[in-house]
Amino acid sequence: MIKLTGRLVCKQIEEADLVRQFLPEHKRLTREEAGCISFEVTETADPLIWQVEELFTNKNTFTIHQERTKASAWGKETRAIAREYKIYEIE
Known about the structure:
By secondary structure, the protein is of the alpha+beta class. It has 3 helices and 4 strands, in the order E-H-E-E-H-H-E.
């Protein structure tokens, strides 16, 4: 399995507003993907930071997810927002 854990870090409230606007659809589409075991993006106590936890069945399904994400409205609208992620392969 492939696990991603980390943070989405906005520089300003306008970026956070983009996350709030586009995140619901991004979550819905991701959770419907083949190979998605879990997908959580949770706002933290800091309104500019979200905790991200993803789990996919294998590297292939994770790669497909990343490709779809880059081409999506979410990917395009939030591409300038910093992502601090670590990706692990787990048994």
